[in-house]
């Protein structure tokens, strides 16, 4: 019940996001142009088909992706046109149409292996197949309608090309978010020297930095380097704040470190603002005064002073970015044959092998994407078959509802089903009132459909329920434009939406893909990746070479990827109505904190990485080998529910203590911190079978009591109101 209450609350929650009215206006204009031309040159039936293409292609451009919007619009239009034509070819009999619908829905479900944008766009093509097969009367007319739908997407792409709004906007936002995240991290370090950092903004910035060769030629110079700057500043501010390797815990040195961290946050926020808006910005003069390091009166000493000087040097680059904005005279990096000047993103033509590999990887029974595809393939034909047997019109609404609300995970599927029902009820009520007030003529319905489309685009990122409200109204107005009376469409829409949402929920019950049982595997992957990263950092201390530095960078990226996969699974598992057995919520939380501490110790060591001409730390090589071996074995133990052991790590650390003439006290201390973090991890996950059963029962009782307390509080609040 706690999970279901959370589902309802999440489905009706307004998301705090920045509205984009100009983008919504341009996309709604594309719908208006297509509808107007179709009504003038053809018929309301053609207008409905073209409006479907323009609306769906326009909606696809609002997905969070760094692909060019016009490419997304053209790709969506092509998929919509193809699904429409193939659907009509098989629509003569159920014996041919239902298998095609099942296969098409399965393919659309597997598109999630490529990414959320591909999955959502593919789902709209299933809806197109279900809707537009009712319009044509011959194969030639079906081809015409497919072409009209494709032209709707082409119209959106042309408008994007003619009226660009915030070029490189997604890339700017991702880079600015990364700098702002490091700024927030610096501020939190002022009060908590061991504060954690969520690397997700850095991961998103790296994804946004990948461009095709054609994009690399036109990318603004300001988007070339700041991502690496954020990557370098993050470990430096952590090292400055840490009492062990940076500023002392108390006294003037700590106050000086706090001022430097606050100044770093101001500079990074200013640079983020400049990048986001593309305009120069000035750093406050008082911040500049803090960043001046006085050689004679600087209170920081040793490694703390080294970190402060390094931070000031890096912030100088950030200030230069803030002052220049897009007016930087720095030329873009040359594009060599190997593409070394930028992160390569495959073009649409070269994306096919990537898609094939991703789909092949998820073609297995335990994959959430594969199970999602199976659910879609079963629910879409079943919903269509049941709806056509009901004495209602527009039976395709039921399977469309199922397809559009279903996601690979439980929480989003159920939350979107609740949101779609609420949005549909509000939307049809709104459409009813508008039609009664303004009439139901073709031109009136066309105008109302365009307005509804614009409002749907405007609210598309504030919550599914709110955008769905105007999407429902848009569908009612579109059918009214085609000659359908609103009295016929409103009750049909509500009943069939209930049917489709119920089928989507039932499908997840019959064939679930819970994340809770997958948590030990995700934790094991993260542990092994963190072990490889820490070992790479230690090997660089033993032998600081370019190859070891490159290994360290690759291991860091792999660790972030594994950590992101764990966090995504952990967040989903917390929202599932499943009793945790292998790893309870409390154990998962403690293990997560332990691994964060382990990774933080490695990051602090990386911040003090030696140069190529520095003296090597020979003891760190043996510790690196022991660390990598023990974490790899511990990952296997965690996955198979055995207690991990750090025998090699203890022996290597003991040998390090006995080494004569150790010249690396900082590295030795961080190695000890890593050992403590591993001990905390072992404490979190090491349980006897009896202890695990007792812990699971206590966890279930704790959740039940928390839910009862929450319910009592809500009742009191409602009663007081």
UniProtKB/TrEMBL annotation:
Pfam families: FUSC_2
Localization, UniProt: Cell membrane
Biased composition range(s): Basic and acidic residues: 569-589, 689-707
Alphabetically ordered keywords of this record: Cell membrane, Membrane, Transmembrane, Transmembrane helix
Name recorded for this polypeptide: Uncharacterized membrane protein YccC
Sequence ranges assigned to domain Integral membrane bound transporter in this UniProt record: 383-506
Region entry Disordered, spans: 568-591, 689-721
Domain of life per record: Bacteria
Transmembrane domains' residue ranges: 71-91, 97-114, 146-165, 417-435, 465-482, 494-514
Coiled-coil blocks: none
Any one GO cellular component localisation term in the record: plasma membrane
Organism of provenance: Actinacidiphila yanglinensis
InterPro entries: Memb_transporter_dom (IPR049453)
Segments of skewed composition (Gly residues): 712-721
Topology with respect to the bilayer: Multi-pass membrane protein
Family under the similarity heading: Belongs to the YccS/YhfK family.
């Amino acid at each position: 019940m706690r999970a279901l209450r959370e589902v309802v609350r999440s489905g009706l929650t307004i998301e705090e996001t920045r509205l984009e009215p100009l983008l919504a206006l341009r996309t709604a204009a594309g719908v208006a142009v297509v509808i107007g031309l179709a009504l003038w040159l053809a018929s309301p039936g053609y207008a409905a088909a073209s409006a479907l293409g323009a609306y769906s292609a326009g909606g696809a451009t609002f997905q969070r992706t760094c692909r060019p919007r016009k490419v997304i619009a053209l790709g969506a239009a092509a998929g919509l046109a193809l699904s429409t034509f193939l659907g009509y070819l098989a629509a003569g009999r159920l014996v041919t149409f239902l298998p095609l619908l099942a296969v098409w829905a399965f393919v659309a479900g597997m598109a999630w292996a490529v990414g959320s944008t591909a999955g959502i766009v593919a789902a709209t093509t299933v809806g197109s197949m279900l809707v537009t097969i009712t319009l044509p009367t011959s194969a030639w007319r079906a081809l015409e309608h497919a072409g009209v739908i494709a032209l709707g997407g082409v119209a959106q792409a042309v408008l994007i090309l003619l009226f660009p709004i915030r070029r490189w906007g997604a890339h700017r936002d991702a880079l600015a978010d990364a700098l702002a995240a490091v700024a927030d991290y610096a501020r939190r370090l002022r009060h908590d020297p061991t504060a954690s950092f969520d690397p997700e903004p850095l991961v998103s910035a790296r994804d946004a930095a990948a461009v095709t060769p054609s994009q690399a030629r036109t990318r603004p110079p300001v988007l070339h380097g700041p991502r690496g700057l954020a990557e370098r500043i993050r470990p430096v501010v952590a090292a400055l704040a840490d009492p062990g390797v940076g500023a002392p815990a108390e006294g003037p040195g700590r106050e000086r470190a706090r001022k430097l961290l606050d100044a770093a946050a101001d500079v990074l926020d200013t640079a983020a603002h400049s990048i986001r808006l593309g305009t120069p910005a000035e750093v406050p003069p008082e911040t500049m005064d803090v960043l001046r390091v006085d050689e004679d009166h600087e209170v920081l000493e040793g490694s703390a002073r080294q970190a402060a000087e390094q931070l000031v040097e890096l912030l100088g680059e950030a200030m230069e970015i803030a002052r220049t904005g897009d007016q930087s005279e720095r030329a873009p990096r040359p594009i060599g044959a190997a593409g070394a000047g930028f992160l390569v993103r495959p073009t649409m033509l070269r994306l096919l092998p990537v898609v094939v590999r991703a789909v092949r990887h998820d073609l297995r029974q335990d994959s959430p994407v594969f199970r999602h595809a199976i659910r879609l393939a079963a629910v879409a034909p079943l919903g269509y078959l049941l709806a056509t047997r009901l004495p209602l019109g527009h039976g395709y609404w039921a399977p469309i509802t199922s397809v559009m609300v279903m996601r690979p995970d439980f929480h989003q599927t159920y939350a979107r089903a609740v949101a779609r029902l609420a949005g549909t009820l509000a939307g049809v009520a709104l459409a009813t009132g508008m039609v009664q007030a303004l009439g139901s003529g073709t031109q009136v319905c066309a105008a109302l459909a365009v307005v509804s489309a614009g409002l749907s685009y405007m609210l598309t990122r504030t919550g599914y329920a709110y955008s769905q409200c105007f999407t429902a109204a848009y569908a009612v107005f579109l059918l009214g434009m085609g000659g359908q009376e609103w009295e016929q469409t409103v009750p049909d829409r509500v009943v069939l939406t209930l049917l489709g949402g119920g089928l989507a929920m039932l499908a997840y019950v019959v064939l679930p893909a819970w994340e809770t049982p997958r948590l030990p595997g995700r934790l094991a992957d993260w542990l092994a990746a963190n072990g490889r990263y820490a070992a790479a950092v230690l090997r660089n201390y033993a032998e600081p070479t370019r190859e070891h530095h490159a290994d360290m960078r690759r291991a860091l990226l792999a660790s972030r990827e594994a950590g992101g996969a764990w966090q995504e699974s952990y967040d989903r598992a917390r929202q599932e109505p499943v009793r945790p057995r292998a790893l309870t919520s409390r154990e998962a939380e403690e293990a997560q904190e332990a691994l964060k501490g382990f990774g933080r110790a490695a990051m602090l060591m990386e911040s003090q990485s030696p140069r190529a001409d520095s003296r090597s730390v020979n003891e760190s090589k043996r510790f690196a080998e022991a660390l990598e071996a023990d974490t790899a074995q511990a990952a296997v133990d965690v996955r198979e529910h055995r207690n991990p052991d750090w025998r090699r790590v203890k022996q290597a650390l003991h040998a390090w203590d006995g080494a004569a003439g150790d010249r690396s006290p900082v590295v030795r201390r961080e190695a000890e911190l890593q050992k403590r973090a591993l001990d905390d991890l072992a404490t979190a996950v090491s349980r006897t079978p009896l202890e695990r059963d007792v812990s699971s029962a206590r966890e279930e009782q704790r959740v039940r009591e928390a839910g009862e307390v929450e319910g009592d509080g809500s009742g009191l609040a409602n009663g007081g109101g």
